[in-house]
């Protein structure tokens, strides 16, 4: 009798316990759907970044918003421009050169949540630490014996970092910066597709990692990668860690692209999420066909959208990094692309005036932050 009671209790516990979703997002790439941007957003703001002789930006690839300031990375100039929340230029951080605190190249930067300082990463193992006002503090070196190169960096605590490599077969490395010790490496991938890389993204206090042909998005856990959600593209879904390329394709970028799309019908260009949605920008069959995937967590359904009703771009077209919070989605856009990103009819009266002034400018302007406010 006692054994029967234990069995019944066990069955009740198993059946009554909350069931975990497998977090699979089904996407039918053969049947695009219609959608308006205003199905998801209530309004759009344009934040022109001030153009002046002291602030001439070539290209922004990453923007971090912190304490009502925008820290914007201009990779070509190896500088971080700092603007206030209205887009007014404040100051620059960093200096290209060979002296103390200077560097030859920036592969990534972040604001370390544990120290409160800004950290600039050089790919071959130097981390230049600055205050948020731009004062140089120190240079740290990544010099554990197995280290080769890092293209992005995320601090998990005061000592433990995760780096991401574009070209090494194992993409993710956990290491102790203080002890100069490699903890472990993971996510091994064919090096021939290493150049199709996406740097990990941050949502709130956590970091997430994905690859362009691999269907799973991972959370960067404290000790290892944890599967967070996955895309199911039905017959098009592949693991995406290996590719068979000809010698010509390894030397010729155009041929490389052609052969990659012959093996993978899609390339995931960007992924972001918040508490309501998961967004993905996808290249479909070639580099000219860009589409969006928007997954609504409340309904458990996704939409595959080739063109929005507004007939404007909502993708990372030039490598711009998209920011998604619970309040808004934001990305830097080039002044020359402004009319491809937004129309007058999409804006309120105040924003229409800003748009008109930008379109009437007699010389090229700095990039503009376009901010989409969620409903």
Automatic annotation (TrEMBL):
Q: Which domain of life is it from?
A: Bacteria
Q: Name one Pfam family in it.
A: DUF5128
Database matches in InterPro entries:
6-blade_b-propeller_TolB-like
Q: What is this protein called?
A: 6-bladed beta-propeller
Source species of the chain: Macellibacteroides fermentans
